[in-house]
Amino acid sequence: MSKSLITLGAINMDAHDPVALSSFWAALTGGAPDVNGSTAYLAPSGPEGFGMFFQPREGNRPSQQDSHLDLTVPWGSRQSEVERVLALGATFKWDVLEEFDHVQWTTLADPEGNLFCIAEHPPH
């Protein structure tokens, strides 16, 4: 069996205000949005990064989110990153700090209510 050639190209997000939401995520990830009318593309901020595409949402925001991003930071930096992201406009939801030996995380919501986590894994 050969190794897969599939990689993550971009995450697509519907937004009430795609340009504003792309600016939030750009500040979070270190990228710079490329705005084209009512859409915006945020290129990966480095070789380990990921792209994001923001497009207008048609209709109301779904009442339940089926998936979310888990972002990983180096061990010991989760709390400072959470504080930085809160200052950018995210909303704190909850912490999961003692349930698992291999990971701790904080769940947040972006300015439009999309959940995401900032996680850290202890050194082995």
Question: What is this entry, summarized?
Answer:
With 124 residues, the chain is α/β, with parallel strands linked by helices.
Blueprint (SSEs and pairs):
Blueprint: E1 10-15, H1 18-29, E2 33-36, E3 39-42, E4 51-56, E5 69-72, H2 78-88, E6 91-96, E7 104-109, E8 115-120
Parallel strand pairs: 1-4, 5-8
Antiparallel strand pairs: 2-3, 3-4, 6-7, 7-8
What features would you highlight for this structure?
single chain; 124 residues; 4-stranded mixed beta sheet; Signal recognition particle alu RNA binding heterodimer, srp9/1; 2,3-Dihydroxybiphenyl 1,2-Dioxygenase, domain 1; Glyas_Bleomycin-R_OHBP_Dase; Glyoxalase_6; alpha/beta; 2 domains; oxidoreductase; 34% strand; Glyoxalase/bleomycin resistance/dioxygenase family protein
CATH class identity of the largest domain: Alpha Beta
Beta-strand percentage range: 25-35%
Taking all residues together, what is the mean pLDDT? 91
- Helix and strand content put the structural class at alpha/beta
Explain what this protein looks like in three dimensions.
The protein has two helices and eight strands, in the order E-H-E-E-E-E-H-E-E-E. It has 124 residues and is of the alpha/beta class. The strands form two sheets. The chain has a four-stranded mixed sheet, with helices on one face. It has a four-stranded mixed sheet with strand order 5-8-7-6, with helices on one face. A hairpin with a 5-residue loop joins strand 7 (104-109) and strand 8 (115-120). The longest helix is centred in the N-terminal third of the chain and has 12 residues, at 18-29.
